[in-house]
Amino acid sequence: MTRYDLILRNADIATVGDRYRADIGVREGRICAIAQGLEGSAAHEIDAGGRLVTPGGVDGHCHFDQPTSDGSRFADDFYTGTRSAACGGTTTVLPFAAQQKGHSVQAAVDDYHRRAEGKAVIDYAFHLIVSDATRDVTQRELPALIEKGYTSFKIYMTYDDLKLDDRQVIEVLATARRHGAMTMVHAENADCIAWLTEQLLDAGLTAPRYHTSSRPMAVEREATHRAIALAELVDTPILIVHVSGREAVEQIHWARGRGLPIHAETCPQYLFLSAEDLGLDHEDPMHGARCICSPPPRDKANQPFIWNALASGLFTIVSSDHAPFNMQGADGKRVAGENASFDRIPNGIPGVETRLPLLMSEGVLAGRLDIHRFVELTATNPARLYGLYPRKGTIAVGSDADFVVWDQFGEGEEKTIANGMLHHAADYTPYEGMKLRAWPGITVSRGRVVWQDGEFRAEPGSGQFLPCLRPRAPNAGNPLDKWL
Ligand code: DUC
Ligand code: ZN
Ligand code: ZN
Fold first, then answer.
1. What's the pLDDT score for residue 484?
2. Among candidate residues 145, 187, 191, 148, the one with its CA nearest the CA of residue 169
3. For the chain, which ranges sit under pLDDT 70?
4. What is the CATH T-level fold of the domain 57-371, as seen in this structure?
C-alpha cells in the first residue's frame, strides 16, 4: 500500500485552470499524487470536508527587517513576518535585499541572509533593490547575482536614498534584458513630490492627511508613463509595483494596447483604504499615519477602478507591500516625534496576513473576482513572474505541497478583523473591524501543517531559501535594432 506523509482528503481544489474534488498525497514536502479516492495511508490525514483548497499564497512584495535610514525599525523580522504570512495562507514570500548607496549589492544579500537564517517559517526568495546603479553593479554584480538565483530587482523613481535617474534606470533595464531578469519599478516622480511637499510645509499643512496631497495621481501617472517608455526603449518587460490610481491604470492599459509587456501589481490598501483614512478626526493627531504608505490610498471613487482592472486582467499580481511600523514607541511611525510633519513619517502599512482573506472575502465571495483569477493573482502569476513556477504557485503533482484550506462564514457569522488575532508584531492593522466571510483554516507549507484551528505550529528556521530561475531567456541581441 502506498504510504504518504500527509493526505488531504475531500478537497475542493481550485487552480488557475481547474476546479475539482480530489485527495492530495504528499511525500517529502512535495505533492506526489492527486486522485479521487486516493488509495494508501499516511502518517497524517486531514479531511478537508469539501472545503475550498487553493495554492499557498505567493506574496511577491513584502518588507521584513529591512535596514532604514531614518532611525525607524520595521516591526517584523523574518520570524514574525513569515509567521503572520503563514497564518494568512501565504507559503512563499519575496522580501527585498536593499543595496545602500556606496555599497555593493552582494553586501546587502549577505546581510539579508543573516537576518533570515534561523527565523523564517515558510520559504522565501529575495528581490534585490538597486539604489546605486554603477557600471560595476550593472555589468558585473547583477549578472553574477542573477546566475545565483536573485533574478528580480526593484528600482525607485523616488525617495532620496534610493532613487535612480532615467539614465540609471535604462542601465538596469538593459542588464535585465541581457540576463533574463525582471525589473520592478516604484513609479512616482521625485521632483514633483519634493516641490509639492515644500509648498505644503511652507503653508503649515503638515498633518498626516497631507501625505496624499504631496503625491497626487498625476505624480504616479507621469512616472508610470516614463517607466513604460524607458522599458519600450530598452525592449524589456517591467512590472510596475503597487499601482494605486486609475490614472496609472490608464497608462498601463495604453501600453498593453501597444503590445508592450508591461506587468502591474496592486495591493489591498488600494482596494480597501482611501485618502479619508488619513484624515479621520481622532484624539491622536498621528492617527492618520496608520495608513501612510506610498503611493497613498486614493479617493473612494478610485477603488472600483482598481477592482475592475483586477477582474479584467490588467493586473498581473496582488501583493501586500507589507511594510509594518508601530504606532506606539519611538522607532515606528513616531520616529521623528509626536508632531512630525507627514514627510518625516515612515511609509508603509502591515498586511501580509490579511492579503488573501480580504481578497477571498471581498473579491471572490462578493462576486467581484472569480476563483481562478484569485489563484492567478495571488499565487500562480507571482511564482511565474519571479521564476518559482511550477515549484510554487499551483497544486500539481511535483509541486511543493503548499496549500490553504479555507473556512467560510455565513451571514451574521463573519470574522471580524482585530489586531490581537493577527500574528505580525505590528501594534495595529489598518483593517481593524472589517467583517470577512473567509479565513484560512489550514495552511500547509512544504507538507507541514503550519496553521490549523487557530494555532500556529512552525519552528523558526524551518523555511528554506529559494533561488529563483530566470523568468525569461537572456536576450543578447541589440535593443537598438528596434529603432534602426
Ligand atoms: N512604499 C514603498 O515604496 N515601500 C514600502 C512601503 C511604502 O509605503
Ligand atoms: Zn515601492
Ligand atoms: Zn514596498
1. 87
2. 187
3. none
4. TIM Barrel (3.20.20)
Q: Which of 322, 124, 160, 459 is nearest to 112 (CA)?
A: 124
pTM above 0.90, yes or no: yes
Which grid coordinates belong to 335?
Answer: 520616529
Q: Could you tell me the sign of the dihedral formed by the alpha carbons of 168, 124, 381, 357, in that order? A: negative
Q: Is 59 helix (H, G, I), strand (E, B) or coil?
A: strand
User: E strands within 165-235?
Assistant: 182-186
Closest ligand 1 atom, CA of 292?
A: 8
Residue of the CA atom closest to atom 1 of ligand 1: 294
* 3 state DSSP class of 9: strand
Three-class SS state of 122? coil
Beta carbons within 8 Å of 317's beta carbon, 6+ residues apart: 60, 239, 263, 265, 377, 378, 381, 382, 385
- Cell numbers given for 101: 548607496
What would the pLDDT profile of 128-165 be if each residue is shown by its tens digit? 999 999 999 999 999 999 999 999 999 999 999 999 99
Tell me which DSSP letter residue 350 carries. -
Distance CA 128, CA 89 (A): 24
From the CB of 66, is ligand 1 less than 6 Å away?
Answer: no
Domain segments of the chain as ranges: 57-371
72 lines ligand 1 (CB under 6 A): no
C-alpha cell of 442?
A: 489550514
C-beta of 211 in contact with ligand 1 (< 6 A): no
| Protein residues with C-beta less than 5 angstroms from the ion ligand 2 | 186
Regarding the beta carbon of 294 and ligand 1, being less than 6 Å apart is answered yes
| pLDDT in the model for residue 482 | 84
Residue 282 has a pLDDT of 93
